[in-house]
methylmalonyl-CoA epimerase (Limimonas halophila), 134 residues
Amino acid sequence: MIGRLNHVAIAVPDLDAATAQYRDALGASVSEPLPQPDHGVTVVFVDLANTRVELLEPRGEESPIAGFLQKNPNGGIHHVCYEVADIRAAADQLREQGARVLGDGEPKTGAHGKPVLFLHPKDFQGTLIELEEA
Ligand SMILES: CC[C@H](C(=O)O)C(=O)SCCNC(=O)CCNC(=O)[C@H](O)C(C)(C)COP(=O)(O)OP(=O)(O)OC[C@H]1O[C@@H](n2cnc3c(N)ncnc32)[C@H](O)[C@@H]1OP(=O)(O)O
Ligand SMILES: [Co+2]
């Protein structure tokens, strides 16, 4: 079912500072800040040779990452994103196995313009998983 690792997301308290560190201290190629109001975050992509890092800052009152940052005030790895060929088929299969697909179960459009869904971290070794349709 899962294919390539599409990105690893890091939640950060200060997106500008994190972006500058990846650009200047780590010499990475970084995007401009990309507000994602439907997801309650602002994202910066760090493009790597074999995948991406996604730096996430909360946006708005209802950000889904606010709770995570309260528990991890310096930031931390927030989720991993795997690619799947058919996101609805993958979600159906996972639900049949008893996994919790978050939200209303309908894929949303993610930061790359593709359908995405999230799986509860408690069902996958304490790791929030995002699925993105390749
Ligand atoms: C622009 C889209 C972009 C893209 O790539 O396309 C994105 O990736 S957007 C990313 C932001 N959106 C989401 O994360 C949506 C899915 N996330 C959620 O629905 C919530 O974050 C949720 C339900 C995973 C957690 O919400 P919250 O922290 O408010 O709930 P709890 O405090 O009740 O947490 C329950 C339990 O899970 C632990 N937890 C929470 N977040 C994580 C995490 N990222 N990784 C691992 N574990 C996590 C939390 O500590 C609680 O554990 P407990 O032992 O019960 O205290
Ligand atoms: Co993501």
